[in-house]
Amino acid sequence: MLSLKWIVLAIASGIGGYFSLPFEPSMIQVFALIMTSLVFWFAIARLSNHLTVNRTLVLGSVMQLGSQFLVCAALGAATAKVSTEIKSTEFYYSNRRAVTLTGQVTNIDQRRDGPRVFVSKTVKLNSGRREPIGLVRIKWRSDPVPSIGDSIEFKAILSKPSGSLVPGGFDFQRNAYFRGLSAYGFTVGKSQKVRADGEGLLQTFRLFWVRLRQTVTIRIDKHLVDQPAALAIALITNQRQRISEENLELFRKSGLAHLLAISGLHVGLVATMVFVLLRYGLALVRPLALRWKTKKIAAVAAVFFCLVYVLITGGSIPTQRAFVMTFLVLGAVLLDRRALSARVILIAALVILLWSPEVLLSASFQMSFAAVGALIVGYEKLSARRAKAMSANKAKGSVLNFPGFSFVSQLLMSSLIATLATAPFAAFHFNLVSLGGIVANLIAIPAAALLVMPAGFLSLVLMPFGLEGFPLWAMEQGMLLIFRTAAAAADLPSFQPFRAPVPTIYLVLFSIGLFCLLTAGRRIVAMSALTAMVVITVYAIASNQRPFLVIAPDQEAIAVFASNEQGVLLGQKPGSFLREYWERAYATE
Question: Chain centroid to CA 136: how far?
Answer without folding.
Answer: 23
